[in-house]
Amino acid sequence: MKEIDSIKDEIFKVLRECRTAKGREELGMFLVEDDDVFTAINAGASVCDIVVIPEFAKAKPAGLQGLQPYVMKKAMMKKLFSGGKLPNIIATIKKKECRLSDFTTKKFILVMEGVQQASNIGMMMRTAEGLGVEGIVVIADGITELYSRNVIQASRGSFFRMPMALADRGQALAFLKKNAFTTIATSSHTDKSLNTYTVPEGPIAVAVGNETNGVTDSILDAADDIVAIPMQGNIESLNVVVSAGIVLYAINSA
């Protein structure tokens, strides 16, 4: 195994760039750590370079069989990860996004608009996968970068299995209309309760929005149905992941 022992090493430079949003955008790659490396490989992701610490390589984990990783001592790894627990293995992965046209045959999708917190994005991917969603349309306007460490780790592997298509708001709405999706949004300002909502036949798109303001008026105006999640007590709203999970569960179990 070749050792990376200098910050001037070209592989190290790429790894360092992939730690920043700007670097990920310019290189078209992102960084994954520990178990996510093997999840990405098993999901068929396009892996560029794999780097392990010597102690991990000596343990000869089954997941490394057939791979040709580089070795990097902990002292060098600390130059990439200055705080917290150091990963045993890292890898660079090529970005891969679906096109809206890849979603024309899907029957149940999530539309994510303006979600800001990386952990919410990742948890929503995980929730969507668990509740039968076949793909996520991410409206690019104002959303947090998808390839950050926090998004990937919060998804618990769903990031690599859930098809995602990035589009602007106009493109997304036009696609949903053209392909006869029933778009469902949530709002507290409606008398239509999720409890009594009858899920229509045909493809369904559930739209979720910003943690503070919800979906935009553009989405609400384009939605075929707007439903309210019934709540008790003095609660006015729920966390966006919780709200999405409730609606997705209701539709998936209808």
Short description:
The chain is α/β, with parallel strands linked by helices and 254 residues long. The chain has helices spanning 10-17, 21-27, 35-42, 54-59, 74-80, 118-130, 149-155, 158-161, 169-178, 217-222, 240-252, and strands at residues 29-33, 47-52, 70-71, 89-94, 108-113, 135-139, 164-167, 182-186, 204-208, 225-227. It folds into two domains: 10-94, Ribosomal protein L30/S12 (60s Ribosomal Protein L30, Chain: A, 2-Layer Sandwich), CATH 3.30.1330.30; 100-252, SPOUT methyltransferase, trefoil knot domain (Alpha/beta knot, 3-Layer(aba) Sandwich).
Characteristic terms for this protein:
single chain, alpha/beta, 60s Ribosomal Protein L30, Chain: A, Alpha/beta knot, 2 domains, six-stranded parallel sheet, 11 helices, 10 strands, 35% helix, 19% strand, elongated
Blueprint (SSEs and pairs):
Layout: H1 10-17, H2 21-27, E1 29-33, H3 35-42, E2 47-52, H4 54-59, E3 70-71, H5 74-80, E4 89-94, E5 108-113, H6 118-130, E6 135-139, H7 149-155, H8 158-161, E7 164-167, H9 169-178, E8 182-186, E9 204-208, H10 217-222, E10 225-227, H11 240-252
Parallel strand pairs: 2-3, 5-6, 5-9, 6-7, 8-9, 8-10
Antiparallel strand pairs: 1-4, 2-4
Task: Explain what you see.
With 254 residues, the chain is α/β, with parallel strands linked by helices. It has 2 domains: 85 residues, Ribosomal protein L30/S12 (60s Ribosomal Protein L30, Chain: A, 2-Layer Sandwich); 153 residues, 3-Layer(aba) Sandwich (Alpha/beta knot), CATH 3.40.1280.10. 35% of the residues lie in helices and 19% in strands. The chain contains 11 helices and 10 strands. The strands form 2 sheets. A 6-stranded parallel beta sheet has the order 7-6-5-9-8-10, with helices on both faces. Strands 1-4-2-3 form a 4-stranded mixed beta sheet, sandwiched between helices. α4 links the parallel β2 and β3. α6 packs parallel to α7. The mean pLDDT is 94.
